[in-house]
UniProtKB/TrEMBL annotation:
Family membership noted in the UniProt record: Belongs to the CdaR family.
Pfam families listed in its UniProt record: GGDEF_2, HTH_30, PucR
Domain CdaR GGDEF-like: 153-289
Boundaries of every PucR C-terminal helix-turn-helix domain copy: 342-400
UniProt protein name: PucR C-terminal helix-turn-helix domain-containing protein
Source species of the chain: Ectopseudomonas guguanensis
Annotated ranges, domain Purine catabolism PurC-like: 7-126
Record-linked InterPro entries: CdaR-like_regulators (IPR051448), CdaR_GGDEF (IPR041522), PucR_C-HTH_dom (IPR025736), PucR_C-HTH_sf (IPR042070), PucR_dom (IPR012914)
Length: 407
């Protein structure tokens, strides 16, 4: 469970704090309160903080307050609290309120008469309670998802006591954020860590907002670079709605998360609590395909896997490796000894459904060159492109290669 900006405003003793802008961000999760003492905050926050601006240790004119609003938005902070009174910051400039509203950043006014120690103690206490409840909820959800329980009935009763709607049919969704290695390779460690934290905070916030919009929300489960979301999904109509919502979310976040890449796998619809573990396994299979097949555009549903469902269910990977070696091993070997052109040629030919002109265009070679390569492929493999059984074997071997390749 997260403590939100709205929760902070509702805490006992904090009634004199007023939300002046950024109503759309009231559900932003507050990770911790932070008092800004420097001219800017970009270098000092990781995302999710509720920033307090007093003006005591640094002058805060209109230009500086605008800077803080923009840096707070960039760093995905939960919100900005500006203390006002007669001595330091008399009023919040209209331009600052307008900018916070434009950026959907919660902007709160706190009178100096409300002591900071009262505010931070109230927020700190609420954060501890929220974190304890959140850990309990996550533990129950992880037990159900792992199938790690002695009595499901007892676990569901505990879920009810924690306010978890576990009796609603769900669709297990698994998300993965990749590319942190590139981030740390391109930037200094401190800058890379800040950007990673900022992007993770952005992703978490948008996921939680999306879950809230879908209704009957369960807490988002964060596990390293993975997130598990349990979307309400009773039928095919809800399944289509979920896929569309996740597609929109992916398209929205893609440019904001760069160079990190977000991938998403959806399990089957109508999954009840006893089948959450099965749904998670389905979502893992779909996620693997989303990662390894670029044409999926980062998202795949379990019901879209087709033959990949069968291939992914084979636990003895040596069976798949032997099949690939038997069908296309000679081509892989030839490409390792010479210029690697045969496997790319085969992949292009299948990608264009056997259309020579389009396959040649894809490879940027002459059609005669492509025909020669296809003849060499047939000679090396002993397969014929005219034989439907041979074409099926080659197609499956190519799928296994892509499914087994590093993400």
């Amino acid at each position: 469970m997260s403590l939100t900006v709205a929760d902070v405003l509702a805490l006992p003793g904090l009634a004199s704090m007023r939300l002046r802008a950024g109503q759309a961000g009231r559900d932003n999760a507050v990770r911790w309160p932070y008092v800004a003492e420097n001219e800017g905050i970009a270098e000092w926050v990781m995302g999710g903080e509720l920033i307090f601006v007093t003006g005591i240790n640094h002058p805060r004119d209109e230009a500086n307050l605008l800077r803080l609003v923009r840096e707070g938005h960039e760093r995905v902070v939960a919100g900005l609290v500006i203390l006002t009174g007669a001595e330091f910051i008399q009023t919040i400039p209209t331009s600052v309120i307008a900018e916070a509203e434009r950026l959907n950043l919660p902007l709160i006014e706190q009178p100096y008469a409300l002591k900071m120690v009262v505010v931070t103690q109230a927020i700190g206490t609420a954060l501890v309670h929220a974190q304890q409840l959140g850990r309990s909820r996550q533990h129950v959800l992880e037990q159900v998802l792992d199938g790690d329980y002695q009595s499901l009935d007892v676990l569901l009763q505990r879920g009810d006591s924690l306010g978890l709607a576990l009796h609603v049919p769900r669709q297990v969704t698994l998300l993965r954020l990749d590319g942190s290695e590139q981030l740390f390779g391109d930037l200094a460690d401190d800058d890379a860590e800040r950007q990673l934290q900022s992007r993770q905070q952005l992703l978490q916030r948008r996921l939680e907002q999306c879950l809230g919009e879908l209704g009957n929300a369960l807490p988002l489960i964060s596990q390293g670079r993975h997130w598990i979301a349990l979307l309400p999904c009773a039928d095919a109509s809800a399944e289509a709605r979920n896929r569309q919502a996740m597609t929109v979310l992916l398209d929205e976040l893609r440019p904001q998360l760069g160079p990190l890449r977000l991938f998403l796998g959806l399990g089957s619809a109508g999954c009840d609590a006893p089948r959450f573990a099965q749904g998670l396994g389905e979502a893992r299979q779909a996620l693997a395909v989303a990662q390894r097949f670029p044409e999926r555009l980062g998202l795949c549903s379990f019901n879209e896997l087709g033959v990949l469902e069968l291939l992914g269910a084979i636990r003895d990977r040596s069976l798949l490796d032997r099949f690939v070696e038997r069908v296309v091993g000679p081509l892989i070997g030839d490409d390792s000894r010479h210029q690697p052109v045969l496997m790319p040629t085969l992949e292009a030919w299948f990608a264009e459904n056997g259309n020579l002109a389009l396959a040649a265009q894809r490879l940027n070679v002459h059609r005669n060159t492509l025909s020669y390569r296809l003849q060499r492929i047939e000679a090396l493999t002993g397969c014929s492109f005219e034989d439907p059984h041979d074409r099926l074997n080659i197609s499956v071997a190519l799928l296994i290669r892509r499914l087994s390749s590093p993400a």
